[in-house]
Structure formats: C-alpha cells, structure tokens
Amino acid sequence: MTATDTPTVNAALALGDDALILSHRLGEWAGHAPELEEEVALANIALDLLGQARFLLSMAGDEDEMAFLREERSFRNLQLVEQPNGDFAHTIARQLYFSLYQHELHTDLAAGDGPFAGLAAKAVKETAYHRDHAVQWTLRLGDGTEESRRRMRAALDALWKFTGEMFQPVEGLDGIDWAVLEGRWLTALTGVLEQAGLAVPEGPRTGAWAAGAGRQGLHTEPFGRMLAEMQHLHRSHPGASW
Amino acid sequence: MVAVTPESGQDSGLGADLGAQLAAAFDAAVAADERVEPRDWMPEEYRASLVRQMAQHAHSEIIGMQPEANWITRAPSLRRKAILMAKVQDEAGHGLYLYSAAETLGTSRDELLDKLHSGRQKYSSIFNYPTLTWADVGAIGWLVDGAAITNQVPLCRCSYGPYARAMVRICKEESFHQRQGFELLLALSKGTPEQHAMAQDAVDRWWWPSLMMFGPPDDESAHSAQSMAWRIKRHSNDELRQRFVDIAVPQAETLGLTLPDPDLKWNEERGHYDFGPIDWAEFWDVLKGNGPCNEQRLSQRRRAHEEGAWVREAAAAYARKHAAAPAAAARNEEARV
Ligand SMILES: [Fe+2]
Ligand SMILES: [Fe+2]
C-alpha cells in the first residue's frame, strides 16, 4: 500500500498527512490547555485539519487504511508537524510556521484549476483563522512578559530547522512557484515577528538530512511513538469496523 | 421580577420590614414561575446555593473532558476521532457558559477554579472512574451524558434565568453526545465478538456509577427540599433516577447488551422498572476522594492550570500594554486572550 502511484495521489498524501499529523498533535492538548478558551480554539483547529485530512486521504484510498495501516516510512508529512507539542510556545511557533505556509499554499492552489482547487478554496478560510490564532498568540507571547518572550524565542529557534522542508517542491502540485511561495512566507513571518518584538531566527533551515526528508518518508524519532499510539487500537482488531 | 438592585437589597442597612417584603415578593415570584435575573433582589442563601450548584456543574464539565480526552489519540477511525474531539470541545464550551452564568452572580471564574483546585468545591464523582477501553467512550456518551440530560432538562426551567438559558443550549449538545455514544456502542455490539465483549464490559462498569449520578436517596439529600422550593430543582433524586432507568432499559435491549442488575424487571403496578440496591458506601467513598481517579483528575487539572499560568500572565501583560489601542484589542477578541 505505497499508494504513491500517481502525482495526484502523492500530493494528496503529502497534504493529507500534514493535516492528519498536526491535527493529532493538537488533539493531545485536550484537557491540558492553559485556559478554557484555548481548549476550544485548539480543538477547532484540530477539527478543521482533520476534516482536510479525511478529504485528502480519501483521494488516495480508504481514509482509515491510509491513517491507521501505513507504516512510518510511508507517511509523507513534513517533519515540522510531527514535532511534539512542547510548551505552549512551541505549539504556537509550530502553528505560526505551518499556518503561514499552509495559508499561502491554499491561496495558490485555490487560484488554480488542479485537483486540489476545490479543497483549497474551502480550506483557505479555515487556515486564515489558524494563521490569525497563531499570529495573535505570537504577539502576546513576544510582547507579554519576560518569561513568555524567552519561551517564544526558544521555540522559534528550536523549530526553525524544520521550516526549509516546506518549500521543497511536491510532485503533483503543479503551478506552484515554490521560491515565490517561500518569499511570501518569509515576508509574512518577518512582519509578525517584528511586530512581536522578536527576531527572525538565524541558522540553516534545513540540514543535509532534513531537506525534504518527511516528504520522502524519513521522520524524527518521536513520530514512531506517536503513530504507535494512534494506530494501536485500529490494528488490534483487523478488519473490524467502528 | 422585583426590580431592586442587589446592592440595595442586601441584609445590611435595610429596615426589617423592607427585607421581609422583598423576601415575600421573591418567594411569590418564584412560586409563580417567574425568572430571577442577575439584577433582581434575591436571598443570600438562594445566591449561594445557585453559585454552589453552577460551580459544581461547571467543574464537572471541565473535569469530564479528561476521561474522554484519554481516547482522542487512540480513536480507531477518523470519523470517530472527529466526533470525539468535537465532543470534548463541547464540554469545554459548557464549562465556559456555566462559569459565565456564575459570574452573573458576582463570582469570578478564577475564584471558582481556585476552589476546585484546592478541593473546596466538588465535581461529579462519575469522572473519578477510569476509561479503560474504547467502549468506555460509548458508555460515557450513552449513560453519563444520558443521566446528565435526565438531570438537566428540568434545569432549563430553573428559576434563575442565566442558568436556565445556559442549560437550554447545553442540553441540545448533550443529546447529540448521548446519541453518538449509543451509536458507538451499537457498532461495537454488532461488531466482532471482541468488540461486543468490550461494549458489554464497559456497560457493566458504568451502569451503577451512572445511577449514582442522581445523588443520594431523597431522605439523605442535604439541599434538595430548599432547592425544590426555590425552583432550582424540580424533581427529587429518586424520581430522576427512576426516569433514567425507565429510558435506559429498552435502549440496552436495542443495543443487544445486558445491564448488570439481576433485580431489574418491569413492575406492572408501578409502571416502572424495579432495580436492585445501589452501593451507597461506594458512592460516599468516591465522593470523599477514594475513587480510582480522584487524585489523577484533580492533579491533571491543577497541572494544566499551573503550567498555563505564564501564558495567561503574558496575555494579561500584553492587554495592559495595548489597552490604549482599542482597535487592536477588538481585533484580537477572536483569538480571545
Ligand atoms: Fe457537557
Ligand atoms: Fe456531554
């Protein structure tokens, strides 16, 4: 079940896995968020992403087979989205990097006439909210207290090395100018961080090992444990329906 | 209702005559099923009783997120995962409505959370039981949300307006949860033998604690009589428990599952199901803190609150710095900080 037969399926898995895995990570916050309003907001975002994932994975096959029966090496998501939640600043930094990217990407896809235009047109409204949520928190953490600024800076730095992968071309997403997309992302990010009084992190945004790794099925160690938890029940009852 | 502001109506500084008149007017209005609104005069004991009940209810909503959130990361299909995440989110929303309703009586959310965290206020004991298998998610939806609905539908006509209105909204969502739980159990019951056994085991474990959710028998219930007179409560614990049993028994038959009570049988004369004795010793023990998860639930809640302190402080500091820019503040409302 490698299911990367056609470029469209390949792209559906890349985008679908991003949404599925990030949704799962956000779902881990349930019952642990810093305040009730955030319980609601994080669940909203997780549910939007899960909806996107279900649509996209269904383009590649049965959504549950795709989610629960693939091995770690068959997942095509970015390494960024599989990173553990960490503290709230890490979660917000991950959201900021990813939602700025996803929003730009959906905007481009929605403007085209490829197989993802319909989904992107709907999802772009959702990702606009995800982006605003991340931006508002970045401003508050960056321009809040000494501690929040320190934590936000550490989080942005820690996840920086996973951001280069977002702009590796994905086979099956035609008509995307990845360099232009990256430029827009960086401009948007710089604007937010400046407003928050935070510097754009320095250092490489990929390593030799990380360039496009997730898209090729190379993941980080925490991902295997995440999948083990996610897939365990489904795999324990082969063929059962739920 | 009596249009007297709370400040002018408190006991101090009032003539005894006026106080008695207000109390009489209040009693008459409540007896006539008029709604009490936040700015109306009300007896201090009525206010305190409502705050206690609404706080306990709000705490139950947010502690109740934990046993089900325990299964979000392991949900066996994406459809079930979406339903469960949305349900746990709804419970957070219920907590929000109820803390807001309690705020109309002059008690802040922070104050109430503090009482929860320090153990001075309780939450429903049902959440001190563990969710051991996926089927527990279904059993909670069917039985626990089901019992909550039986308890709460009458609260939609509670004498205190903000509470009654919050309950209308909450009950609608709880009935979704109940149906979803039922449907989850039905799928398991009709599934593989292992799935069926999982469903039966969950129902066996959740049945009796669900009956305890209605509280002690009427003759041992501390606040019942006064709450009934004030129209905060409209039916006795035992009445509601009976109503729940009568609804659940035929549903269990539809599910193809049995209920763990050999004494359960239809009583033609009473027009109700008879059921066996409830183990009240267990109920009081769990209430006292000796349930399987009391410690775990409360410490997770405290930890989330403590670990979130720096986030809330950052948001407050930001709000103070930008208080001079109302346009920005309005724009930020969406992200709610
Ligand atoms: Fe609820
Ligand atoms: Fe519920």
TrEMBL record, chain B:
| Any Pfam family matching the protein | PaaA_PaaC
Q: Which SUPFAM superfamilies match?
A: Ferritin-like
Q: Which NCBIfam families match?
A: PA_CoA_Oxy1
Which protein, by its recorded name, is this?
1,2-phenylacetyl-CoA epoxidase subunit PaaA
What's the source species for this entry? Streptomyces toxytricini
| Gene (UniProt) | paaA
